[in-house]
Amino acid sequence: MPTLHRITIFPIKAFEGHPLQRAEVLPSGALLGDRRFALQDSSGKFISGKNCESIHRVRAQYADDLESVTLSCAGSEETFALEVGNRSLAVWFAQLLGVSCKLVENTSGGFPDDCDSPGPTLISTGSLAEVARWFPEFDLEEARHRFRMNLEVHSKLPFWEDRLVAAPTAESRFRVGDTVWRGCGICRRCVVPSRNARDGARIANFAREFSRRRAETLPEWSPQERFDHFYRLGVNTALDSLGKRGFLGIGDLVEAI
Predict the structure, then answer these.
(1) How many distinct structural domains can be found in the chain?
(2) Over the stretch 116-151, which tens digit does the pLDDT of each residue have?
(3) Cα 118 from Cα 121, distance rounded (Å)
(4) pLDDT at 121
């Protein structure tokens, strides 16, 4: 039976993740601390790898209590309290990225990419390994950094997670530990996975080659009606029921209902 193998939250949206052994699930369906903070420019637009390639050069290492973050880039390193009132943190980012920005916070649900599916994103180890096999430029660990998923299920079967999403006219539910989730769709990918997670170097024609391979290897259990294009990987989720614990933990069973 597949089990939960990795849990990763991203305390500052668009920056590096932080591994957990156990994650609290909020009533919104988000994991506590995931994308709790984000950078916004003067127009209120989120700053991310989609619109700012310089982000790839920034390393972020979080304290275990997530109260502070150590940021480094090009030999410069500094530790900041992770709070919206920390002006020096915003200035550090602004000087590095070359754009006026501020740190914003949402404690109830974070800043998910898909507000209709605010739960954690999910993928299998087999899927990441298969995609890494397609591209000699990176390995399994780099695939994890590029695709930035919250939950990784231990299954060697590529695209195992597609079975957690039903056809558009049906509903699909699955259990992780004692929490129940809806598989809302197959994640639409952006430009970020085409870039090296450390320096931003891009693989030419990445989306085209990915889409070709994905179409060729689409399993019979994948909900084909969900693929308006094949540049999709992983599952978007929404919380169905919280369970008694309200937590996800490494080793929890993952099973379709």
Answers:
(1) 2
(2) 899 999 999 999 999 999 999 999 999 999 999 999
(3) 9
(4) 98
Going by C-alpha positions, the residue among 108, 118, 104, 89 that lies closest to residue 47 is 104
Please name the helix (run of DSSP H) or strand (run of DSSP E) that holds residue 118, with its range, or none.
none
Q: What share of the chain in percent tops pLDDT 90?
A: 87
Q: Which domain-ending residue is among 74, 105, 136?
A: 105
* In-domain check, residue 223: yes
Cβ atoms of residues 100 and 42 within 8 Å: yes
More confident residue, 235 or 42: 235
Q: Which two tokens stand for residue 133?
A: 């096999």
Residue type, 76: S
Residue with tokens 């590529």: 158
Domain boundary among 54, 85, 105: 105
Same domain, 206 and 175: yes
Same domain, 154 and 69: no
Looking at the fold, whether 56 and 154 belong to one and the same domain comes out as: no
DSSP3 helix / strand / coil % (the chain, rounded to 5): 20, 30, 45
Q: What pLDDT does 169 receive? A: 78
Residue where the block lists tokens 């891009």: 202
Closest CA to 143 of 134, 151, 132: 132
Q: For strand 173-176 and strand 122-124, is the pairing parallel, antiparallel, or unpaired?
A: unpaired
* Enclosing domain of residue 159: 113-256
